[in-house]
Design brief:
Blueprint lengths: L15 H7 L7 E8 L3 H11 L3 E5 L2 E6 L1 H14 L6 E6 L8 E5 L15
Antiparallel strand pairs: 1-3, 1-4, 2-3, 4-5
Length: about 120
């Protein structure tokens, strides 16, 4: 008998805080990946400095963060206050199930790319 990798009751969580608690983080924090492309040096520095309040830079223009749902909203509001959506781009990936509504983006980015079924990180 094959045992599924993820039990059926863990496959989809409508409540993100409950998902994090089940995954072993009682604070309700969930791992996120933030990537960005900011065209202006001043905005780039401001965004990078602000993101350091929420996470750790893991590559150029990429941060890994453990965030509660309210922190995600707070961070997203800060991003909107810093970037120029006509020329800059920021994407936020939630790195656990449910995958639906896990990706947020703002700025000049092709939303057709978000319709892909799989998200692959290299």
């Amino acid at each position: 008998m094959d045992v599924p990798l993820i039990p059926a009751w863990l496959e989809t969580f409508p409540d993100l805080a409950a998902a994090a608690r089940v995954r072993g983080d009682p604070s309700g924090r969930i791992k996120h990946l933030i990537a960005y492309d900011v065209r202006d040096g001043r905005r780039l520095c401001r965004l990078h400095k602000r993101l350091k309040d929420y996470g750790v830079p893991v590559q150029l223009s990429v941060f890994e963060c453990l965030l509660t749902p309210p922190q995600v909203d707070e961070l997203w509001a800060a991003v909107h206050g810093i970037i120029d959506v006509a020329v800059d781009w920021v994407v936020l990936y939630r790195l656990h199930r449910p995958w639906d509504e896990a990706v947020r983006h703002v700025g000049c980015y092709d939303p057709a790319l978000l319709d892909a079924d799989d998200i692959i990180f290299f």
